Amino acid sequence: LAYYLDKIREQPELNAFNEVFVSSATEQAVAVQEKINAGKAGRLAGMVIGIKDNILYKDHQTTASSKMLDGFIAPYSSTVVSRLLAEDAVIIGRLNCDEFAMGGSNETSFFGPVRNAADNQRVAGGSSGGSAVAVQADLCLAALGTDTGGSVRQPAAFCGCFGLKPTYGRISRYGVIAYASSFDQVGTLTSSVSDAALLMEILAGADAYDSTVSAKSVPVYSEELNSPGKQRIAVLKETMESEALDPETKHAILQAIAGFRAAGHQVDEVSFDLLDYLVPAYYVLTAAEASSNLSRYDGVHYGYRNLQAENLNSLYKKSRAEGFGTEVKRRIMLGTFVLSAGYYDAYYQKAQQVRRLIRERVEALFTNYDLILTPVAPTPAFKIGENMQDPLVMYMADIFTVLPSLSGIPSIAVPLGNNQAGLPLSLQLSAKHFNEGLLLAFTAGFK
Ligand code: GLN
């Protein structure tokens, strides 16, 4: 713990932590040491873990990097935090992220952008940017993030770590601040596959507090990391031919593919012609869910309140106008619009139908293939400020990560080394529902 606390102190410019839990982490570390001495330590004994600032930890502040939750203290712990603590992990602090996890660069945070440790002028990615940089810069051993449309995988890719988004329903969302509930999943950011496997074993599985979690038994992932045998891999052709794809990223992925072929895996180019529909369907659906989820921040129940309001209506209006940032407001308005009478059928319902079609098409691919391969993002980490003027540019960069999110399948960002400029490159592998064991084993065999 002292090692990581020093590291954090040495690199304040990264802005990865919204708060370091010095006293509770120190107490926990002492308690764990006693358990270790007594030979009674849990499976994560002493593992120092950071959590994204939208995951509740009892008696600690949680803000989702929003002014709206200023001063909000979690009255209970999320299931994921309880499970980490039950296995004697040490939670070192809460990590910066995009406001309410809405963004892909960590620039919508009320607390400012996180800086990529590979190049301080560049973004960390988002929304779990603090989680990615904390692992990249060795500020903790591993971190939890949340992934609605890429928020674990894309920052992991920008920072050269492994980012796993499990199957929708694999991990409890109890005590995780909701963005789009039919997409949100907690995921892991780690510097090794074995850390991801161990964390998954502990985090996954049924929870009486979240009825959307599957009751399926949880494999002992960390003991199944040996070679999974020959796999059939579908490379989605249109994603590799996309004009937006950076040449060095493409080259690194093609080299990895050559390596898979040489190792005896079957790799085929497969056409996926629904690419143009992914980003529109994702943003209509997630904005709709967000507008509903964020209606609870009314200036009365949580966090920020405008104290000059004269009546209830102006309390709502002023608190929400002042508490939420621009991107969050944009999505609340978009979501309210697509759900409103007269537009519901044309936008929300249509997007639901498109989601169903995408999911069916993806499931059909798995009759002939075990893994789907695409890039994670079209480019490596971009410059801070570069994409902030135009929300559509930012949204389009989510094109590859939203495919697994719309289909609910597990997906992992795998580091591929750095480009000429020293920026991390990455590829994305996805598998059938509840097949994160294969993703982990395949990735372990390749790295
Ligand atoms: N960039 C995407 C968005 O802004 C993904 C965010 C996420 O996964 N939380 O919605």
For the largest sheet, list the strands in their spatial order: 1-3-2-6-8-7-12-13-11-9-10
Structural class: alpha/beta
The helix content, as a percent range, equals: 25-40%
Number of DSSP strands? 13
Poorly predicted spans:
none
Cofactors, ions, other ligands: glutamine
Order of helices and strands: HEHEHEEEHEHEEHEHHEHHHHEHHEEH
How far from one another are the termini?
28 Å
Beta-strand portion reads 15-25%
Tell me the overall shape. globular
The helix count comes to 15
CATH topology of the domain at 2-223: Amidase signature (AS) enzymes
CATH class categorisation of the domain at 2-223:
Alpha Beta
Q: What integer is the average pLDDT?
A: 97
Rg, please?
21 Å
Sheet having the most strands: 11 strands, mixed
CATH superfamily of the domain at 2-223: Amidase signature (AS) domain
* Overall CATH architecture of the domain at 2-223: Alpha-Beta Complex
Description:
There is one protein chain. With 447 residues, the chain is α/β, with parallel strands linked by helices. The protein has a domain at 2-223: Amidase signature (AS) domain (Amidase signature (AS) enzymes, Alpha-Beta Complex), CATH 3.90.1300. The chain has helices at 2-10, 22-37, 79-86, 129-136, 153-159, 193-203, 237-241, 247-262, 275-293, 312-323, 326-339, 344-365, 391-396, 402-407, 436-446; strands at residues 17-20, 48-52, 90-95, 115-116, 119-123, 142-147, 162-165, 185-190, 232-236, 266-270, 371-375, 411-418, 424-431. The strands form two sheets. The protein has an eleven-stranded mixed beta sheet with strand order 1-3-2-6-8-7-12-13-11-9-10, with helices on both faces. Strands 4-5 form a two-stranded antiparallel ribbon. The longest helix has 22 residues, at 344-365. The two termini are 28 Å apart.
